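Notebook, p. 212. Picked up where the previous page left off. The plan for this session was modest: take the two constructs that came back from the sequencing core last week, fold each one, and keep the raw output in the notebook itself so nobody has to go hunting through shared drives later. Recording the first one now, exactly as returned: residue sequence, then the structure token string.
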Amino acid sequence: MRIISGLYKSRKIVAPKNLPVRPTTDMAKESLFNILNNTFYFNDISVLDLFAGTGNISYEFASRGTEHITCVDQDFGCIKFINETADKFDMPIQTIKSDVFKFLEKTAIQADVIFADPPYSFSEEQFSVIPDLVFKNNLLLEEGVLIIEHSKHTNLSNLANYSHSKSYGGNMFSFFESA
């Protein structure tokens, strides 16, 4: 994986092969950040990266100037890798090792952008818990957006606060906003 733009543009990051992850493709990530670039000033926002995996999305935000980034993942190897990479590049990324659903039930952390990249094998019911908890617990700041990455074979358009989706190859991003 590589960082697309910003301070660390073109830097390659190689994750250990034993991590249980499926990093967002560079093409999908670039398309997502083109959308976000038209909505947010990256140096003025806070980001919550759920099911963070390798930290791929968080590194892109950090490279573009975001200074308040929190990554949540339950895998110790993923958290260790994110911490090592953030230290190596001096990126302002805080990590929390936790089950994402338990984290969302208890956290008071609010963010402008909440990005969730759960396993593509999740059922629609499992996917639905993410926006339910985010909006029930008021975790999005005003004008914020929740983005869930999923397979193009999963349809999240019937979930509460759904706004729209964008498809890139086999990847899909569904956007959720406060009503």
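Okay, moving on. Second construct, recorded in the same format:
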Amino acid sequence: MNPVNTKPYQLPADATWFITGCSSGIARAIAELVASKPGHRLIATARNLSSLSYLAESDAILKLALDVTLPAAVDQAFKAAADHFGDSFHLDVLVNNAGYELAGDTEAVTEEEMHEQLETNFFGTVRMATNATRVMRQSKDHRGGLIFNISSLAGVAAFPGQAFYHASKFAVEGWSESFSTCASSNRVV
């Protein structure tokens, strides 16, 4: 087992951020903050590109439509970021926020709905984190990076009427804990 990296990480002055689910909430607030920081670069994503209109048009900001349930779309988003930022492309921070809550009677949920919940909240998180880690490890200057997998109380405690949401968030919590022990040994913390 790899030990957890305990060295402090210094966010570079020219940090590149990749944030999913930027249409509202915490990801929107983080995107607005990053966009206001001189020298920082932002890849902001949402399922609906028009929901990113609050962000200014800038060479330092790349707005992308992204459905994290589609492996090819995730791969394409990373390729688009590399193409946009060119040889200077590096990734310093991934904020994995795309997700939604499925609530209601457990027995009323369809097969499609339960799979979509896990595809978005769990497998989408995994796809983004593994792609980000690959980019971070291949960085020319090997400066590492940070990955924030946004979860919720629903990943540590369960309540009635949200069984599949809880399943997805418990999966994010367990996977993230395991993944962090191997990723951090290579300066991806």
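Notes on construct two before I forget. The helical segments are 25-35, 71-85, 111-138, 163-183.
Flagging for discussion at group meeting.
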